[in-house]
Design a protein that fits this description.
The longest helix has 24 residues. This protein is mainly alpha-helical. It has one domain. 60% of the residues lie in helices and 0% in strands. Helix 4 packs antiparallel against helix 8 and helix 8 packs antiparallel against helix 9. It is globular. It is built from 14 helices and no strands. This is DUF2764 domain-containing protein. It comes from Tangfeifania diversioriginum. InterPro entries: DUF2764.
Length: 288
């Protein structure tokens, strides 16, 4: 893949911190700006980061959830409404959608039995990870591995703490996922696979929900800095900045009262059924 440098663009990006109190611009505005500044092949990589918002919008349409449309997605409401309707979908040109998106909607429409939302979330999330890895970009491959591992580890820790089966919700098929499913040791026997597994466990054990969430986001922030340390003006630096804006945007919307409400809601869902809510899966999305 051709390596392009964006000297002026990267040099002009504002300094941000995870819980920044100033929102320089929304992630949707950033995407529109980058479309004008990046080579089309590089902007295609940026759009991959916005796909989880499309997942959320599509799932809300399919499961007829009352929701506020998330304009951070790549696809319009009209287009996703056509995809969600079986008859309209059959006439729809799906060439602009990722293959996993098309596979999901065909499976959903053709499934004769009920398709649980938790299963739909898992299907799309796993497809997204594979699509990131198939992009041919090493940064996106490392990012996909990181997000999958973090999601699975936090899911396993939650399941173990609340004595809820989690094995079927684990995404992927590798040494990390096998250890999470089978090991009963404190660190799931992952000390050689995940360098800072003990640190992740300590983060999970943080009692204050907002403190814990901030530590998780700080961990991601540090990871982004580490894997782009030698990418001074490349696309990877821009991709890392997009992720940082997602984090800043999220904390701009949160407050202590909202955080406690989120925690109580998640705990109730954990205790009432065996399906992990979306917040324990992959994306952060908008908090209602």
């Amino acid at each position: 893949m051709i390596q392009r440098n964006y000297y002026c663009l990267v040099a002009g990006l504002p300094d941000v911190i995870p819980d920044d109190k100033k929102l320089h611009y929304s992630s949707a505005e950033l995407r529109d700006y980058l479309q004008e500044e990046l080579h089309p092949d590089d902007f295609r990589l940026v759009k991959l980061f916005y796909l989880p918002r499309d997942h959320e919008n599509l799932l809300n349409l399919l499961f007829e959830t009352e929701f506020e449309w998330d304009d951070r997605g790549n696809y319009s409401r009209e287009l996703l409404e056509q995809m969600a309707d079986k008859k309209q979908y059959e006439l729809l040109d799906t060439s602009d959608f990722p293959p996993y998106f098309v596979e999901f909607i065909e499976t959903f429409h053709n499934d004769e039995e009920d398709f649980p939302k938790a299963q739909a979330i898992r299907f799309l999330t796993e497809g997204w990870f594979k699509w990131l890895r198939a992009s041919g970009n090493d940064f996106l491959r490392k990012f996909a591995d990181y997000k999958q591992n973090m999601s699975n580890i936090m899911m396993a820790l939650n399941g173990r703490k609340h004595d809820i089966p989690f094995e079927e919700a684990i995404i992927g098929d590798d040494e990390v996922t096998h250890a999470l499913k089978k090991s009963r040791s404190r660190d799931f026997g992952l000390s050689t696979e995940i360098d800072d597994i003990e640190n992740l466990i300590q983060i999970f054990e943080t009692e204050n929900i907002l403190d814990r969430e901030l530590k998780i986001d700080n961990h991601l922030w540090k990871f982004l800095d580490e894997i782009t340390f030698f990418n001074y003006f490349t696309t990877e630096k821009v991709l890392a900045f997009v992720q940082k804006i997602f984090i800043v945007e999220r904390w701009f919307e949160l407050d202590k009262e909202k955080g406690q409400q989120i925690f109580n809601q998640l705990l109730e869902e954990l205790q009432s059924n065996f399906e992990f809510p979306e917040e324990f899966a992959i994306t952060y999305g908008k908090r209602k």
